[in-house]
Amino acid sequence: MEKPYILHMLSTEKNLSPFDVNMAQDAGWQVTMPYLHVKEDEVQGLVQDAIFSRGPAGVKREAVFIGGRDAECAVKMLKIAKESMVPPFEISVLADPSGAFTTAAAMVAAAERELDNKFDTGLSGKVVLILAGTGPVGQIAAVLCAKAGATVTIMGRQKEKSERVAKIVNEFFGEGQTNIAGEGNDKLPQLLPEADVIFATGAAGIQLLTAEQVAAAPKLKVAADVNAVPPEGIAGIDAMADGAPIAGSPSGAVGIGALAIGNIKYQAHHRLLKLMRETDKPVYLHFDQAFEMAREFIKSKK
Ligand SMILES: NC(=O)c1ccc[n+]([C@@H]2O[C@H](COP(=O)([O-])OP(=O)(O)OC[C@H]3O[C@@H](n4cnc5c(N)ncnc54)[C@H](OP(=O)(O)O)[C@@H]3O)[C@@H](O)[C@H]2O)c1
Predict the structure, then answer these.
(1) CA-CA distance, 114 to 68, in Å (whole number)?
(2) Longest C-alpha distance within the chain, in Å?
(3) What is the pLDDT, as a whole number, of residue 58?
(4) What pLDDT score was predicted for residue 57?
(5) Is the CB of 67 under 6 A from ligand 1?
(6) Probe ligand 1: pick from 12, 98, 101, max atoms within 8 Å of CB?
(7) Residues contacting 174, CB < 8 A, separation 6+
(8) Which of 182, 188, 240 is nearest to 214 (CA)?
(9) Is the CB of 17 within 6 Å of ligand 1?
C-alpha cells in the first residue's frame, strides 16, 4: 500500500487556519495533521519524530507547514526545522503565518506588474508607504519592496511601534538592510506628496486612506488594498479592482483590490504546497519563494 501524503501543520495558536487546511488538501496533501500551541524549542523534536518514522521513500511523502500569527517566529521555526533534518531523512518545510507571506508576495508582485504595464518602471528607487504596516502582511511587503530597491516607510498609529517593527524587519527579515523606516500616522501629510506606491495592510474593515488623501499624492502610481471587508482600505479601490484607475488621483494611479490580490495569493500558495508534494529534493519555503511563485503566475498570464 502506498503511504499517504502527510502534512504536519504546526501553529503557535489554538487553531489552525481552516483556509490553510483547505489549501493543503486541495494541493493533494491527504492527511493535514495539526500541532497546536507549538513553541520554538519543540520544533526539532516534532520534525525528527516525523522524519525517523518512515524510510527514505516514505519520507518524500511528508512535509511541514508552519502557520501561527507571528512572522518572525515562523521564520525562526523554519530555520530550526531545516537544521533538524538528518539526511537522507529530510522533508520540505513551508512557512506562511496568517497567510502573510503569500498575501504580501501577491500584493507586491501585482504592484510590480502595474508599475511595469502602466508606467514602464519597477520598484527600484520608488518611495513606498505601507499603511498599518506593522502586522505580518505589512512587514513582509516592506521587506520584499526593500529588497527590490525601494525606500519603504511602515506607518502605524504609534510611531514607536512602527519604528520597532521597521528595525526588526530591516535586521531580521532583510538581513541588515536599512531602507525601511517606521513612522506614526500623523506624518502621513508630509509623506504623501513623495509616495509612488501605497499599500494598505490594516486589520479588516478600516479605512486608512481617504479620497482627499489620494488627491494629495501627486506622484502616486499604484495603490493596493488587502482588506476585503468594507469600507475600502483605500478610498476608490474596489475589492475587485485589478489595475483600474483610481478616481480622483491627479497622477492617474491605478488600484489593486483584495480579491485580485487574493487570486494571486491563492495561486502562489497552491503552487508552494504542490511543489513540496512533488519535489524529489526537499525545499525550504518562505516569503522569497512565495514572491517568485506570484511573479511566475503573473508572467504566465501575460
Ligand atoms: N486579500 C487577501 O488575500 C488577504 C489574505 C490574508 C490577509 N488579508 C488581510 O490583510 C490585512 C492585514 O493582515 P495582518 O494579519 O497583517 O493584519 P493585522 O496584524 O491584524 O493588522 C495590521 C495592522 O492594522 C493596524 N490596526 C489594527 N486595528 C486598527 C484600527 N482599529 N485602526 C487602525 N489601524 C488598526 C495595526 O497597526 P498599528 O497598531 O501599528 O496602527 C496592525 O498592526 C487584513 O485586513 C487581512 O484581512 C488579506
Answers:
(1) 31
(2) 65
(3) 83
(4) 81
(5) no
(6) 98
(7) 143, 146, 147, 180
(8) 188
(9) no
**CA–CA separation, 82 vs 51, rounded Å?**
12
Q: Sketch out the chain's domains with CATH numbers.
A: 6-99+266-300 (3.40.50.10280), 103-261 (3.40.50.720)
Give residue 230 CA to ligand 1 midpoint distance, Å: 13
Chain segment 14-58, per-residue pLDDT in tens: 999 999 999 999 999 999 999 999 999 999 999 999 999 888 888
Which residue puts its alpha carbon closest to atom 45 of ligand 1? 204
Low-confidence ranges of the chain (pLDDT < 50): none
Beta bridge partners of 285: 94
Cis peptide before 245 (omega within 30 of 0): no
Question: Residue 120 corresponds to which cell in the numbers above?
Answer: 514602464
* Residue 267 near ligand 1, beta carbon < 6 Å: no
Closest CA to 105 of 300, 301, 275, 290: 290
> What distance in Å separates the CA atoms of residue 111 and residue 122, rounded to the nearest whole number?
9
* pLDDT per position as a tens digit, 108-117: 999 999 999 9
DSSP 86: B
Torsional sign, CA 189, 190, 193, 195: negative
For residue 195, which phi and psi values (nearest 5 degrees)?
-70, 130
CA distance 115 to 132: 22
H or E stretch at 182: strand 180-184
In order, the DSSP letters of 93-136 are EEE-GGGHHHHHHHHHHHHHHHHHHHHS--STT-EEEEETTTSH
Q: How many CB atoms lie within 10 A of CB 292?
A: 16
Provide the 3-class DSSP secondary structure of residue 153. Answer: strand
